[in-house]
Specification:
The chain has a two-stranded parallel ribbon. It is mainly α and 110 residues long. Helix content is 56%, strand content 5%. The N and C termini lie far apart (33 Å). The chain has helices at 3-12, 18-25, 41-52, 58-69, 81-88, 98-109, and strands at 37-39, 74-76.
Length: 110
Amino acid sequence: MSRRRRLLADLVELRRPVDEVVGVLRSFPWDVERPLVRVRADDVVRLLRAYLAGAVDAETVTAWADALEVRDDVGIEDGLRGFFTEASAPELFEPVSAAFAARWLDALSS
């Protein structure tokens, strides 16, 4: 696995702090022919459950969504764009909260 793909996987799976991974990823070019990793509903569910358990805060949820939503090297599973749009811009939609997390967990489980 390439270093870039490993970093992207670390970001998707939240194995390292978001700002740390984003900082390292800045050294790679933006343009790629196809995504190197994919974000799946399970990844979002894991993040939201971690938020509800207090393992990550609202700022981390927002930073994670913001870091992933516009990357050419990250594919996003169908049906998740709305989550990324809302979570990355809470000032435009709604703050990340327990109600926000519950609504998305419900939407992703149906």
